[in-house]
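[Automated response] Your request has been received and processed.

Submitted sequence:
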Amino acid sequence: MGNSRLTMRSALGLLFLLFVQISSALKFDLISGKGERCIRNFVLKDQLVVVTAIVSGDKGDGQMVNIHIKDALGNDHGRPRDVVGETRQAFTSPADTAFDVCFENLMVSRRGIANPHRSIELDVDIGADARDWSSIQAQEKLKPIETDLRRIEEMVGEIVNEMEYLRAREQKLRDTNESTNERVKWFAFGTMGMLVGLGVWQVVYLRAYFRSKHLI
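Generated structure:
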C-alpha cells in the first residue's frame, strides 16, 4: 500500500512537471558605451526574487559593468557596480508590479581593445524557483520526492494566484470598458438631444423673426 501510494505521488509529480516551464539563463553580449540594456519581468506581491548574473572579463580591462534592479513603482532593489564573475541579488516584491534588471558597460579607459564588450549570463528566479530547496530538505528532513512535490505544489499555487490576478484584472478592465461605453452612449444621446433642441430653437426663432418682418 505504501509503495503504491509513493508511486502515485511520483506519477503525480511527473505529471505536474510536464506543465511547469523550465527556465534557462539568458545570455547576451553587452557592448561598451552603448547605454543600458534592460530585461523586464512581472512579479506578484510578496514573492521572492533572486537575480543571478555572471559577467565575463577581468577588473582593470578598461570596462566597468554596473547593474541596476528597479521596479515600476520606483523602488531600487540593488545597484551592484563594477561586476565581474557571479553576483546575486535577492528581494521580496512590495506589490504586483513589473521590475527591470538593467546592465550598462562603461568604458573607463581605452586600452586599444577592438570591439570591447562583456558577455552576460542572467538568471531570474521568482517564487518557488527562488527558494533554497536543498536547505529546506535538510532542515525539514524531507525525502527527495517529497521536496519535489512540495516545490511543485508551491509552483502550482503561484500559477493559480497569477491566473486569479489576471482574471481580476480582466474583470476590472471589462467593468471599465462597460462603464466607458455607458458614458459614451449617454453622451451621444445628450449630444443628439442638444442638436435636436438647437434645431427646434432655430426654427422657432426664424419663424418669429420672419413674422416680425411680416414675411409670413
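Summary generated for your ticket: The first strand starts at residue 26 and ends at 31. Helices lie at 2-19, 133-140, 144-212.
If you did not submit this request, please reply to this message.
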